[in-house]
Amino acid sequence: MTLTPSPTTSAAPTTTTLVHPPRTGRTEWWRHAVIYQVYPRSFADGDGDGIGDLPGVTSRLDHLARLGVDAIWLSPFYRSPQHDAGYDVADYRDVDPLFGTLEDFDAMLARAHGLGIRVIVDLVPNHTSADHEWFQAALAAAPESPERARYIFRDGTGPGGSQPPNNWTSVFGGAAWTRVTEPDGTAGQWYLHLFDTSQPDLDWRNPEVRTEFEAVLRFWLDRGVDGFRVDVAHGMVKEDGLPDWDGTSSMIDGAHEGIAGSEDGSTGAGNAGPMWDQEGVHDIYRAWHTVLAEYDGDRALVAEAWVEPLSRLARYVRPDEMHQAFNFSFLTTLWRAPDLRTVVNASLVASDEVGAPTTWVLSNHDVVRHASRLGLEVPGSKPNGIGAADPQPDEALGLRRARAATLLMLALPGSAYLYQGEELGLPEHTTLDDEERQDPAWWRSGYTERGRDGCRVPLPWASGEPGLGFSASGRTWLSQPDSFSRYALDTQRGVAGSTYEVYRSALRLRREFRLGTGSLAWVDGLPSSAESSVLAFVNRDVLVVTNFGPDLLRLPADLQLLHASQDLPLADDDAVLVPADTTVWARLT
Ligand code: GLC
User: Fold this and answer.
1) Residue 279 annotated in active site
2) CATH 3.90.400.10 residue ranges in the chain?
3) For residue 183, how many other CB atoms are within 10 A of its CB?
4) What's the CA-to-centroid distance between 232 and ligand 1, angstroms?
């Protein structure tokens, strides 16, 4: 197959349109890394209490080295009462005893580095835990005191201040304000919490807050971490005067039923409102950029910012701010070729504009796993959790599409994020007993949103063992669905065509063909009955084709097949046949 990857050529039968040239000169690791999210409480348990921990992570790092990832990002393991699974930090400079000790952290870091794996840790700066010594001091202190000034305390409105200061609602449901009882026993001020009541928002206009977090960054940089994933990066500064807002403050439930993408790549996953994406956040990241720059080894800041459109998100990764931002527009795009093309285009254009790499992500600890989302009636839609009484995803179809989606993603230039267990093809636990649920979103939504527990179930490592090898004691903090034994690592390792081996080969080929620093040119005009059911592009000299179906797609014969998300049917000549919901990688010859 002859393709000329130059700007818009029209040599029949195919045309190519270059939207992103290969990267030259910029070699920092985070520009092209594949970064694997470890959710420590569900990865591996070293001490048998049924909750994963840092020694557990260390013991399984060889799995990640063999898989071929460049880095890991660890969700929080800091001291915390665990009201939001550790995203409520009581001490930013210590490890929670649930997860081990600082020495366990150092041992994990040393082992990872020894295996050539970089380590990013989670930083949660929008709010502390209510157990943090600062908040405890604020509760004990008077209104207008310096202790209260670290948080967002305000007098109430209405008679006796009995109504909240404004009408904001929490991301997890319910009001975003809680009234405190003053030390003298009277009903007092209110404090803001965009999330749970146990997560009071800090006031980032207060210089003391800024100084403290710069010290926290240095604490972990001095220990040798390679970067930080910054939680709620778009929420830290609120609009002056905290004006009322009649929209939803919801952050993670855009595209519920699946909103078709708009031309700028937006899918409804972004946030608007006076609590999000305020100009003032960028000063914080400029300051942090200079802190990281004092250290060697290209340390990186990654924004968790649910901001749309992508051109707005790109402002977080301008040259003197953060290094990467999660691409949630990509994650929330429906399983449709034209929508995915639009979001990929918009992502590359927006990040090229500021000289940053684009990132790609399909799953994390806050969303229904993509192997299940893609098996829903609207493939790729994003309910906030799935319960036993809800319509159930088609497991086989979901996995088939998930593998196709992953191969599409891993062929794109930029940096890609994987969420633990997706390399096994794990589905969401969609029938978890409601009694077991621990996500505050479940009860704060008045038991209407099932929330995120279903994607946080402990990993299956060994099919025949109690707890599927997650913990030597067999205990698991959430029960695993029966199906997980079919997905256990030991049933897939070395098995050609298993999801695990498909991921592993993809990572090897991605590295070999330097796709992460590569290019993207769309290919149009492939022989297909419905153009809109095919996505095809060239990255360097690799042709990537995803067939969304239903028809079989026949590719020209002069291609060298490199990889496929499924077994391919045999053609009676040398042609490559691509069935529905399948991605192939082929070398242009
Ligand atoms: C982020 C985290 C999520 C957490 C929330 C509050 O969105 O990813 O898990 O609940 O912030 O910290």
Assistant:
1) no
2) 133-192
3) 11
4) 7
